[in-house]
Design brief:
The strands form four sheets. Strands 1-2-4-3-5-16-6-15 form an eight-stranded mixed β-sheet, with helices on both faces. The chain has a four-stranded antiparallel β-sheet with strand order 10-12-8-13, covered by helices on one side. The protein has a two-stranded antiparallel ribbon with strand order 7-14. It is an alpha/beta fold and 445 residues long. The protein contains eleven helices and 16 strands. The longest helix has 21 residues. The protein is 37% helix and 23% strand. It binds zinc ion (2 copies). One zinc ion binds next to loops. Belongs to the peptidase M20 family. One of its GO terms (biological process) is auxin metabolic process. Keywords: Hydrolase, Manganese, Metal-binding, Signal.
Length: 445
C-alpha cells in the first residue's frame, strides 16, 4: 500500500469513528470492527428506531403485489428525497435505485424486495393490512425499512465513503422474478458485489444465519390440463375419467424424486393444485393439476422439468386421457439456485461477527425455498443471509407466508446496521486490496 493510499484510508477510518486523528494512527484489527458497532448504535437510537417502525407499519397497512408497488415506491422515494439521496426511477416498473457516495467505483449494492402476498392477514393488531386479500406475510415491509435505515446511516457518512453504495429497492420477488427485470434494466452494471437480507422466524433475534455456496434451491412451477370425456358418474364405461387419470399422474410424479434422483442430491416435486369436477354424480371433462419443483443444480432441475412433462403426458395416456403441460413463462421465470460467494461469506462472517458477536453468526443448511436474489448472484458475487426474529418472550413468530406471520420490529436496527456495515467495510477493504481475488458466483456448481 502506498503512503498516500495509507493516509487516505487512515482518514476514512477516523472519520467513521469520529475520533481525533492522532500523529500515530493505528490500522490494527481493533479499528475496523468499530464501524459495525457504531452503525448498530446509530440504528438503535430511539429517533431512528421509531422512524423505521413508523415506515414499516405504514407499508404493512398498505400491501401491494408484485409490480403494483406504487405507493410503496412513492414512500421510498419520499424518504430518499428527504435524506437528499439521488435515485433512478422507475426501474423495472416500480423499482427504485439510490446512490450514496462518490458516484465512482467501487460500487457495492444492498437490496430489499418490496412486494406483498395475495393472502388475508389473520393477525389482529392496530396496523393490520387494510387491503382485503393482501398481506406482507414474508417480511418485505421490514426489508424495505431496513434498507431505508441503512440509507440514513450511510447518508450521514456519505463524505467518508470512497466509493458508491447502490440501494436496490426491487419489485415483484414473490414468483415474478423482479430481480431479473432489474438486471435487464442494468442496475448491476459496474457493481462489484451485492448483499440481500431475509428476516427469519426460525433464528433468534440478534443472530444471523447463512452459508457459502448454494443456500436456496432453484425453483419452477408446472400446470397440466388432463382431458378425458365427461359423463354420468354411474355409467363410467361411457366416459374417460380424468380424475382417475390425474390421481395416477400424481402418484407417478412422486416416483421421480424417490426412485430416479440421487438421495444425496436434494430435490422436490410437489403437486399443490388439483381442480376438477363439481358434482357427486358427474365425471368431469378435464382436471387441472399444478405444483412446484426444486433442485440445487441446473442438471437436476432440467431433468426434473423433462421428467415431469413425460410422466404427466404418458401416465395420462395410460388412462386414455390427453395432457398438456405448461411451465413458467416470461412473466414468472424459473428461479436459479441462490449461490453465496465464498469470499463474501468470509467478509460477512467478519462484519456480522463484529456487530453481533461470533456466537450469533450461525451456519445453516441449505433450504428448499427459493429467492429471485439468485438472478443477481448469478451475474456478480452475491451474498444472501437470514436475520433472526425469534424471541420466546414475545410469543411465537410464524414462518413466512403464514396468515399469522409477524415481524419482530426489534430486528430492524440489526438489518439496517448490517446492510450499512457490509457495504462500507466492503468498500474500505476493496480500497486496501485494490485487486482482491474475485470469487466466482458459482464456485460450487
Ligand atoms: Zn415470500
Ligand atoms: Zn420473502
Amino acid at each position: 500500500m502506498g503512503f498516500s493510499q495509507w493516509l487516505s484510508l487512515t482518514f476514512i477510518f477516523h472519520a467513521f469513528l469520529s475520533l481525533p486523528i492522532s500523529s500515530e494512527p493505528s490500522l490494527g484489527p481493533e479499528v475496523l470492527p468499530q464501524i459495525p458497532v457504531n452503525f448498530l448504535e446509530l440504528a438503535k437510537r430511539p429517533e431512528v428506531f421509531d422512524w423505521m417502525v413508523g415506515i414499516r407499519r405504514k407499508i404493512h397497512e398498505n400491501p401491494e403485489l408484485g409490480f403494483q408497488e406504487f405507493e410503496t415506491s412513492k414512500l421510498i422515494r419520499a424518504e430518499l428525497d428527504q435524506m437528499g439521496i439521488p435515485y433512478k426511477y422507475p426501474v423495472a416498473e416500480t423499482g427504485v435505485v439510490g446512490y450514496i457516495g462518490t458516484g465512482s467505483p467501487p460500487f457495492v449494492a444492498i437490496r430489499a424486495d418490496m412486494d406483498a402476498l395475495a393472502m388475508q392477514e389473520s393477525v389482529e393488531w392496530e396496523h393490520k393490512s387494510k387491503v382485503p386479500g393482501k398481506m406482507h406475510a414474508c417480511g418485505h415491509d421490514a426489508h424495505v425499512t431496513m434498507l431505508l435505515g441503512a440509507a440514513k446511516i450511510l447518508q450521514d457518512h456519505r463524505h467518508e465513503i470512497q466509493g458508491t453504495v447502490v440501494l436496490v429497492f426491487q419489485p415483484g420477488e414473490e414468483g415474478h422474478g423482479g430481480a431479473k427485470k432489474m438486471l435487464d434494466d442494468g442496475v448491476l452494471e459496474n457493481v462489484d458485489a451485492i448483499f440481500g437480507i431475509h428476516v427469519s422466524a426460525s433464528h433468534p433475534i440478534g443472530a444471523v444465519a447463512s452459508r457459502p455456496g448454494p443456500v436456496l434451491a432453484g425453483s419452477g412451477f408446472f400446470e397440466a390440463v388432463i382431458s378425458g370425456k365427461g359423463g354420468h358418474a354411474a355409467i363410467p364405461q361411457h366416459t374417460i375419467d380424468p380424475i382417475l387419470a390425474a390421481s395416477n399422474v400424481i402418484v407417478s410424479l412422486q416416483h421421480i424424486v424417490s426412485r430416479e434422483a440421487d438421495p444425496l442430491d436434494s430435490q422436490v416435486v410437489t403437486v399443490s393444485k388439483f381442480q376438477g369436477g363439481g358434482a357427486f354424480n358427474v365425471i368431469p371433462d378435464s382436471v387441472t393439476i399444478g405444483g412446484t419443483f426444486r433442485a440445487f443444480s441446473k442438471e437436476s432441475f432440467i431433468h426434473l422439468k423433462q421428467r415431469i412433462e413425460e410422466v404427466i403426458t404418458k401416465q395420462a395416456s395410460v388412462q386414455r386421457c390427453n395432457a398438456t403441460v405448461t411451465f413458467n413463462d416470461n412473466d414468472q421465470p424459473f428461479f436459479p439456485v441462490t449461490v453465496n460467494n465464498k469470499d463474501l461469506h468470509v467478509h460477512f462472517q467478519k462484519v456480522a461477527g463484529d456487530i453481533l458477536g461470533t456466537q450469533n453468526v450461525l451456519e445453516m443448511q441449505p433450504l428448499m425455498g427459493s429467492e429471485d436474489f439468485s438472478f443477481f448472484a448469478e451475474v456478480i458475487p452475491g451474498y444472501f443471509f437470514f436475520l433472526g426474529m425469534k424471541n420466546e418472550t414475545q410469543g411465537r413468530f410464524e414462518s413466512g407466508h403464514s396468515p399469522y406471520f409477524r415481524v419482530n420490529e426489534d430486528a430492524l436496527p440489526y438489518g439496517a446496521a448490517l446492510h450499512a456495515s457490509l457495504a462500507t467495510t466492503y468498500i474500505l477493504e476493496k480500497q486496501s486490496k485494490p485487486n482482491p481475488p474475485k470469487g466466482s458466483s458459482h464456485d460450487e456448481l
